[in-house]
Amino acid sequence: MNNYIEKNILPLVTKPITYLGNEVNAVHKIPDAAMIRFAFAFPDTYEVGMSHLGMKILYGLLNEEKDIWCERVFAPWVDMEEQLRRHDLPLYGLESMMPLNDYDFVGFTLQYEMSFSNILNMLELGKITLRSAQRKEAEPFVIAGGPCAYNPEPLSDFIDIFVIGEAEEVILKIMATHREWKKTGGARQDFLKMAAAIEGVYVPAFYAVSYDEATGVITAFTPLVEAAPATIRKQFIEDLDQAYFPDKIVVSYTETVHDRISYEIFRGCGRGCRFCQAGMIYRPTREKTVPTIQSKIKALIAATGYDEVSLSSLSTGDYSEIETLIKNLVCDAEANKVSISLPSLRIDSLSIEMLEEIQKVRKAGLTLAPEAGTQRMRDVINKGVTEENLLDTVRTAFEKGWGHVKLYFMIGLPGETLDDIEGIANLGQKVVDEYYKIDRESRNKSLKVVLSASSFVPKPFTPFQWMGQNTPEEFKNKQRHLKASIKERKISYSWHDSGVSFLEAVFARGDRRLGLVLEKAHQKGCRFDGWGEYFDLQKWTEAFAEAGIDPDFYALRNRDYDEILPWDFIDTGVTKKFLKAEAQKAEAALTTPFCPENCSNCGIMEFKKGWKCNG
Q1: What is the rounded distance in angstroms from the CA atom of residue 284 to the CA atom of residue 270?
Q2: Is the peptide bond before 460 cis (omega within 30 degrees of 0)?
Q3: Sequence-separated (6 or more) residues with CB below 8 Å from residue 218
Q4: Which of 187, 181, 11, 138 is nearest to 87 (CA)?
Q5: 511 to each of 150, 221, 505, how far by Cα in Å?
Q6: What angle do CA 436, 440, 441 make, to 5 degrees?
Q7: pLDDT per residue over 273-315, tens digit each?
Q8: How many other C-beta atoms are found inside a 10 Å radius of the C-beta of residue 493?
Q9: Strand locations in 350-416, DSSP E?
Q10: SS3 of 263, please?
Q11: Which of 3, 19, 91, 358 is least surrounded by CB atoms within 10 angstroms?
C-alpha cells in the first residue's frame, strides 16, 4: 500500500509531506506478533495536531516501551479524503502506513467539541465500525481522553474506553492489562471489564442512563456490571518533576500552527476564574523545578534545532520562580539566537524585568486576557484583574518598544449588558491612548491593537455549568454592537461564528442521546466543523430534527442546582458544593450596584456606600 499511495495518491493532494511520517525523530520499529500497535489519533489536520503537547508526551512515553509501537494519524484534509474514498483505501498510521483497523488501539485526544464529527469520519475512513456495541472481536479498541472527556457522554456510543484525567498516569496500566488479557485468550468484553477496574477508566457500555419523560432531564446513572465503579476519579500526577517528558520530539518538514518547542512548566491554576474549565479540572497546581526545566529545554533544542521555546501552562506568569527561570533560559538561549515566549500571561503577573528579558532575542506581540470590558463583569467571572493592571502593563510594554497588543475577551457572559460590551471598545481605546502618551522617539513606530472576542460557552465542572448560553441571534447583536462601538482605526476586531459556539455548547453540556445526532450529521458529510469554510449549521439543524433532539435543551437552558448533570459521575476533586457556592457568588456580584460613572478616584465611594467603582 505504501508505494501505491506515494505514487498515485500523494501527487494529487496539497501538502503530501504531511501524510508520509518520515520526519526527524519519528519512531520506526520492527513489529512482531506480540507488539501492541497503538495509533494516536488527532481529530484535526496534521498542522494542528503536531502542535499538541499531549501527543508529543504520549508518543514518546508509549514508544519507550519495547513492545509498543505508537504511530500518529491525523484527520486527512478534504482532498486526501476524496482520494482515499475514490481508491477505496483505508486511513493509515503515518510511520508504517498500516490501515487503521489493523491496530490494537486507536486513541483520540479530545481537545475541542467541534472535532467530534472528525472522529466519526476518521473511524469510517479507517474502516472501523462506528458504534462500539457493534464492533467485531478483532477490531481495535477505541480509546479517548483529554479535556472534552470530562463530559464523555456525547461520544459514548462510539468510544470503548475513556481515560479521565492525565493519561500518563493511566495509559501504561491499560497497556499492561491488554498484555494480560491477550495471554488469557479472552473475548473483547473481558478486556473491557478488566480495563473498567483501572482507576480513572470509564467504559460507557457498562452504564445505563434513565431520563424523565416529561422534562428530559436525567433521573439515574447506573453501573451495569460489578467491575464498573459508580464514580470515576480523575487521575493526576502528584510530582510533576518526575513526570515523563521526551528528550526529543518529531520535527515537521512543514510549518505547523505552533512551530516551536512547547515545554510545560506547571499544571493547574489557582486563580479560580468561574468560566474556565481548565482551571478547575487540572487542579491542584504542580510545578517543575527550574533545573528540570532548563535541562529538558537544552536537550530539546539540541534534538530539534528550533529557535523558539514556548513555556506552556494555564498562566505562565504565575510560576513561583518565573523571573529566575526567564533569566536563566535567556542566558542559555541568547547565544544561539533562541527566543523564549510566554503564551499565557496574566495581566497582573507581568513585571518590567520579565518584559525586558523575553524581548532580548526577538520581540513578539504582547497577548493579554482581560476577558471582560468592565470591572463589573470581571468581578462576576472572578477574573481578579483591574483596568489599572492592564493599562500599567501596556504602558510598560509600549515604553519597552512593543507596538502590537492583542486583548482577549468573551461576550455572552452571564448577566452581561450592552454597557459591558461597549466597555470592551472603551478599554481598547484606552490602550491606544496609553501608546500616544509615550514619547514619539522611544515608542514603536507602528501600533496595532487587536480585540478578539470569543463567545461564552458554559463548560462542565465550572461554576457556570448551570448557566444557559446566549442565543446565536443575541451573540450576533452583541458582535454588531461591539464593532459599531470601535471608532479608532488602530483597533481591529475579530470574533467567532455564533453558530459554531452554539454547537460547542450543545456538546459541552450534552448527554449520550446526542450520539444519534452525531451519526446523522456524519452521514450528511459534517466534518472540520471548527473550520469556517466547512461548518454547515443547516446540516446540523437537519440532523437534530431527524434525531428528534432539541439543541436548545442543552445550550440555552439554565439548569437547577439539584439537577443530575451528565458528568456528575466523575470526581475531579472539585466538589459540586464548591462550584455551586461560586455560582452564587457570581449571581451576587451581578446585583451589586456600580457607580454609573466610568472614571476612577472620583470620591463618590465616600457617600454612596455599597456601590463599587466602575473605573
Answers
A1: 8
A2: no
A3: 209, 210, 211, 212, 511, 563, 564, 565, 566
A4: 11
A5: 12, 11, 12
A6: 150
A7: 999 999 999 999 999 999 999 999 999 998 998 988 988 898 8
A8: 18
A9: 366-371, 404-411
A10: strand
A11: 3
